[in-house]
Write a structure and sequence with these properties.
The structure holds two protein chains of two kinds. In chain A, 10% of the residues lie in helices and 37% in strands. By secondary structure, chain A is mainly beta. Chain A has a four-stranded antiparallel sheet, with no helix packed on it. Chain B is of the alpha+beta class. Among the domains of chain B are: 115 residues, 2Fe-2S iron-sulphur cluster binding domain, sarcosine oxidase, alpha subunit, N-terminal domain (Ubiquitin-like (UB roll)), CATH 3.10.20.440; 196 residues, 3-Layer(bba) Sandwich (FAD/NAD(P)-binding domain); 118 residues, FAD/NAD(P)-binding domain, CATH 3.50.50; 64 residues, Arc Repressor Mutant, subunit A, CATH 1.10.10.1100; 91 residues, Alpha-Beta Plaits (2-Layer Sandwich); 100 residues, Aminomethyltransferase beta-barrel domains (Elongation Factor Tu (Ef-tu), domain 3, Beta Barrel), CATH 2.40.30. In chain B, 21% of the residues lie in helices and 29% in strands. Chain B contains 23 helices and 50 strands. In chain B, strands 8, 9, 12, 13, 14, 15 and 28 form a seven-stranded mixed sheet that branches. Chain B has a six-stranded mixed sheet with strand order 41-42-43-40-34-44. Chain B has a six-stranded antiparallel sheet with strand order 46-47-48-45-50-49. Bound molecules: zinc ion. Zinc ion binds next to loops of chain A.
Chain lengths: 91, 1001
């Protein structure tokens, strides 16, 4: 069970949060311009790497805010937590 | 059995407190302080069970949690009985009743024992190989396998005991209250840290506390005396919280740990009333120190499993701690110095030690010299090649080892014994370390796995880290703890330790016998009956990975997780395949370290506390009217209101008839409600719903369908425009929480530029929904000044009115097809407004109806229920709801997916109506629909999603999803059931009032 340092509330137990999958996948601004393959790329394709992964997390049983987490999937160590709209850190 | 097995020992066992207990129907005695195992041994009982596969007689082997054999059924009460309890761990109490497991009809005469003689026919993988096929015989095989396997019996009644959970936060958690853990606790406390110290036994001190010898000394005192003073200090220490009888069950990431404390299991049954039995601690520790010690290894030789064969350290503990002799004629078999401590304990207690058999060439350590000087016979460079005695060992045969240690030479010597104490060196208890994700390193010199890399703030000390001799245990524990806590000096820095043992040992994983291996039984895993032969067979058959070998031979798969077996299994694999043990890797240890009861895991979350449930403000009214409830998400919703002896069917027929013919009332408070405000609220609705919202007027309502980005229907509901920048959205009851999460996601991450605020107001309002041809008259009686004319208050519109001081939001919307008003009030007025409606509706036979009738009424109209008629694979087009997809809007969630190659397929499953040829035949929801049931394999075209008998139409109706359903209208299809095949015709989804005339009353 991780501890997650919500940028708005502070350190809380993992059970207060939900994970929203891979971060930094922006919804296309003009979906209708995309062909099936391009749309499928946005819709379905997600990385599942061993190592540092950038993820979205939501403090669903707290402030309800979404934020980004850089987590090492091999040991669940959280390297960095940063707000929505911020660029991923270089790790 | 008064064979003078009990030695006077006042320290840990209270001989003034005699306790009686029953083992396999026989009444026996022990004392306060005994474990069940020590009490059995003091009565001369070694044989306690039968092995799993061969049903060989097995005896108590250890004195701790690594015990593979002495696992018993405790208690014979249907509710309280507990299987698989280790006799070595359970403290004796007055009135304890226990029985052997895994033997029938009795432990002394066991029918399964025949497997022992058939054992050449039962090699590794026997079950896999034999019971493979023919496949349809499996059910017969399974019956016999289950009958002859099985460890113990589960209780069959509800557990009457109370369990508890508690959270603890601490600076330093120390697991294990032996000497190294105690020293670490004191160092941490002296540095003003908050320490939590866990010990799974009743007393602190580990194995040093009962060490009665003079050969090891700390600061010139007898080591046990020195330790007692330290314990006294620690008990007074305000910084240290001690939990005894508490075993660590699981070590998770981020130093989150679970520990189980036994609070009443050691008490006599009559003293347990109204007390919490076990408590689960959920611990968050800043730092963790693991000082769980080590367990002694057995040695692997022919017939090494007879009752009376025990670990040397256990024999010593039974004498020194419990004052119990395990045998009257003892032989020790060892490969290292530590068994010589057992020799001294036997000697000191006046117990006969016939000989020591040591596979080493010699040892000149102080302790060995001391034993030599006592005149005890030592056979150096000898090994045991066989043992005798069926239900209790009575003889060992030894021979000299050759130079390589892989064969025996010379002549056989026979030694008499009724107890054989074996020692194969020590294995650090690294289970918790590996559970926490730590990586082990193999130490080639000592043949042990030791903790290596970890990502957590943790430290292993003492024997758990691979230090076995007292001097190195103490000195390294002090040094490592100081470094771990970043402390310069401690009160232990000048400690002076005198140790008389040496570390030298000779390691032979599989000892040779004069017989060929194929004729021997050198056991590795006592509980699962796997032998060295099985490992070699698995290797010959091509299994290479240790994880595969383990599963194929079932080595280490028992309730002890192979605490005794794993090292030898690895060693034999390494020797046979000529591999370095470190390269094989070790098997993974999984939580719990020792088994937990279900009671401990669930704690207080039982019965009504298993999950929270939500009640509407009108709940008590429904209860008063004997409503039956159904769970929708966490809500308790009124399902139907049976009168007198009505069945559900009867009640639903009556309720729905009333709603269609006069008036009905539904508690709709559970619908999800989201308050939406902000200057971009309208744009937001345009983006999240498929239809257009721009032209919606204040005071109007609109139905919306929400998709996922993949184009599949996610939720639906009516949204009302309350003001220029203010909307009230309703969602399905079950979907409310997910919908607001999803909307927040888009707002915060994709469209942060939108000025929109969402607030969940589901619990803030209660909703009474009055429907039916007389609904208008009823509402008019309550709200006398309200103009209810269709011009002033048309369908899909909203009015805000006052009833006295109560603000009421009334929506004229309908989920039944009838004229219908939904009155929303603040939750605290919910019951008031409900009763007001009931009172006003009395003359119109207003009838409360539940969710079942609601489902029937909407099905008659062909309205979908998201989650019942849809399952996450249905697009609006599949639902034949094309009308709700805006063609004008450039984008909305899911729009692009509606013309992916897959979503435009013509042969997708589509929502249709079904009518049974026999109007009285009601289809089962979930039933499959086929065209031809004779052509195999039968092609499934779809399934029934909703099905009811409509009292208004006087026939059965159903909704279904059907491949190419849109094309199949009028077609005859089949619904095969177990005993019959039902003929159906595909129809339109709207069964009643296709012209929508009822909506105006
Ligand atoms: Zn937060």
């Amino acid at each position: 069970m991780f501890l997650i340092n919500c940028p708005y509330c502070g350190v809380r137990d993992q059970s207060e949060f939900v994970s929203g999958g891979e971060a930094h996948i922006a919804r296309p601004k003009q979906p209708t311009e995309l062909n099936d393959d391009q749309w499928a790329e946005y819709l379905f394709m997600r990385k599942n790497i061993k190592g540092i992964q950038f993820e979205r997390w939501n403090h669903v049983h707290g402030c309800r805010k979404w934020f980004n987490v850089a987590r090492d999937t091999s040991n669940d160590k959280i390297e960095k937590i940063y707000k929505m709209g911020e660029q991923p850190p270089k790790i | 059995m008064s064979k003078n097995l009990r030695i006077n020992n006042k320290q840990f066992v209270d001989e003034t407190r005699k306790l009686s207990f029953v083992f396999n129907g026989k009444k026996l005695h022990g004392y306060k302080g005994d474990t069940l195992a020590s009490a059995l041994l003091s009565n001369g009982i070694h044989l306690v069970g039968r092995s799993f596969k061969y049903h060989r007689p097995r005896g108590i082997m250890t004195s701790g949690s690594e015990e593979p054999n002495a696992i018993l059924q405790i208690g014979n009460d249907d509710a309280l009985t507990e299987p698989n309890v280790r006799a070595t761990e359970i403290e004796l109490y007055d009135g304890l009743v226990c029985n052997s497991q895994n033997c029938w009809p009795s432990v002394k005469f066991d029918i399964g024992g025949i497997n022992n003689f058939l054992s050449p026919l039962l090699p590794a993988g026997f079950y896999y190989k034999t019971f493979m096929w023919p496949a349809n015989f499996w059910e017969k095989y399974e019956y016999f396998i289950r009958k002859s396997a099985g460890l113990g019996k589960s209780p069959t009644k509800q557990d009457p005991d109370m369990y508890d959970h508690r959270y603890i936060h601490c600076d330093i958690l120390i697991v294990g209250g032996g000497v190294s853990g105690l020293i670490a606790a004191k160092i941490a406390s002296d540095d003003n840290k908050k320490v939590l110290l866990l010990e799974d036994k009743e007393l602190l001190g580990g194995s040093l506390i009962y060490d009665d010898s003079d050969i090891s000394k700390i600061d010139d005192q007898k080591s046990s005396e020195w330790l007692k003073k330290l314990i006294d200090n620690i008990k007074k220490d305000q910084n240290i919280t001690i939990k005894t009888r508490t075993s660590l069950a699981a070590y998770h990431n981020y130093n989150f740990l679970l520990a189980r404390q036994n609070l009443t299991d050691h008490l006599s049954v009559s003293d347990r009333n109204n007390k919490i039995r076990q408590r689960l601690y959920k611990i968050r520790a800043k730092k963790v120190i693991i000082s769980t010690g080590a367990i002694e290894r057995p040695q692997v030789f022919h017939n090494n499993d007879r009752p009376g064969i025990m670990l040397a350290s256990a024999v010593k503990k039974y004498i020194d701690y419990y004052g119990v002799r395990c045998g009257l004629e003892n032989v020790i078999f060892t490969n290292n110095d530590s068994a010589y401590e057992t020799a001294l304990s036997l000697y000191k207690s006046g117990t006969k030690l016939n000989a020591i058999v040591d596979i080493r060439d010699n040892s000149s350590s102080e302790i060995v010299n001391q034993v030599k000087s006592l005149g005890i016979q030592i056979y150096w460079n000898h090994t045991i090649v066989d043992t005798k005695g069926y239900k209790r060992i009575n003889k060992v045969t030894i021979m000299k080892l050759n130079d390589k240690g892989n064969d025996v030479i010379g002549k056989k010597i026979e030694l008499n014994c009724d107890c054989l104490a074996i020692s194969g060196g020590w294995t650090p208890m690294v289970h918790l370390f590996t559970q926490s994700g730590g990586k082990l390193r193999f130490d080639n010199k000592d043949n042990i796995f030791v903790p290596d890399k970890t990502n957590l703030d943790q430290l292993s000390i003492g024997s758990a880290k691979g230090d076995f001799e007292l001097d190195e245990v103490l000195k390294n524990s002090i040094k490592d703890t100081k470094k771990f806590l970043q402390i310069e000096n401690s009160n232990f820095d000048k400690i002076n330790v005198k140790c008389s043992k040496e570390k030298e040992k000779k390691n032979i994983w599989l000892l040779p016998s004069d017989k060929p291996l194929s004729n021997t039984k050198p056991f590795l895993d006592y509980q699962n009956d796997s032998t060295a032969k099985d490992i070699k067979l698995a290797l010959r058959e091509g299994f290479k990975s240790i994880e595969h070998v383990k599963r194929y031979t079932t080595t280490g798969m028992g309730t002890d997780q192979g605490k005794l077996a794993n090292m030898h299994a690895l060693g034999i694999v390494a020797d046979t395949t000529n591999t370095n043990m470190g390269d094989l890797g070790t098997t993974t240890f999984r939580p719990p370290y020792t088994p937990l009861t279900f009671g401990t895991i669930v704690g207080r979350n039982v019965g009504q506390f298993f999950d929270t449930f939500r009640k509407t403000p009108m709940h008590e009214w429904h209860v008063d009217k004997s409503a039956k409830f159904e769970n929708v998400g966490q809500w308790k919703r009124a399902w139907y209101y049976p009168k007198d002896t009505e069945t559900m069917h009867d009640a639903v027929q009556r309720e729905s008839k009333a709603a269609r013919e006069s008036s009905g009332i539904l508690d709709a408070s559970t619908l999800g409600k989201i308050d939406i405000q902000g200057t971009d609220a309208n744009e937001f609705l345009n983006r999240v719903y498929t239809n257009a919202w721009s032209k919606l007027q204040i005071g109007k309502c609109r139905y919306g369908l929400m998709l996922n980005e993949d184009g599949m229907v996610y939720d639906d509901g009516v949204t009302t425009k309350l003001g220029e920048n203010h909307y009230l959205m309703t969602t399905t009851t079950g979907g409310a929480a997910n919908v607001i999460s999803k909307l927040e996601d888009y707002l915060q991450t994709e469209w942060p530029e939108l000025d929109v605020f969402l607030t969940s107001v589901t619990d803030h309002y209660a909703t009474a929904c009055v429907c039916g041809p007389n609904a208008k008259k009823i509402i008019n009686k309550i709200f006398k000044d309200l103009n209810l004319s269709d011009e002033s208050f048309p369908h899909m519109s909203f009015k805000e009115v006052k009833l006295g001081n109560i603000n009421c939001r009334i929506m004229r919307i309908s989920f039944t097809g009838e004229l219908s008003y939904e009155i929303n009030v603040e939750a605290s007025y919910g019951k008031y407004i409900w009763e007001k409606c009931i009172e006003a509706g009395k003359e119109f036979n207003i009838t409360p109806y539940g969710t079942e009738t609601m489902h029937l009424l909407r099905a008659e109209k062909g309205f979908i229920i998201v989650g019942q008629d849809t399952d996450g694979t249905m697009t609006p087009v599949d639902l034949q709801m094309d009308w709700i997809i805006s063609k004008k809007k450039y984008d909305f969630i899911g729009k692009r997916s509606l013309y992916r190659s897959d979503t435009i397929r013509e042969d997708r499953k589509q929502l249709v109506g079904l009518l049974t040829d026999d109007p009285n035949e009601i289809l089962e929801e979930g039933a499959q629909i086929v065209k031809d049931e004779n052509k195999k394999p039968v092609n499934m075209l779809g399934h029934v999603t909703s099905s009811y008998f409509s009292p208004t139409l006087k026939k059965s109706i159903a909704l279904a999803v059907l491949k190419e359903g849109k094309q199949l209208k009028g077609q005859k299809l089949l619904v095969p059931m177990i005993n019959k095949t039902i003929k159906v015709t595909v129809s339109d989804t709207v069964f009643l009032d296709k012209e929508n005339e009822r909506i105006n009353g």
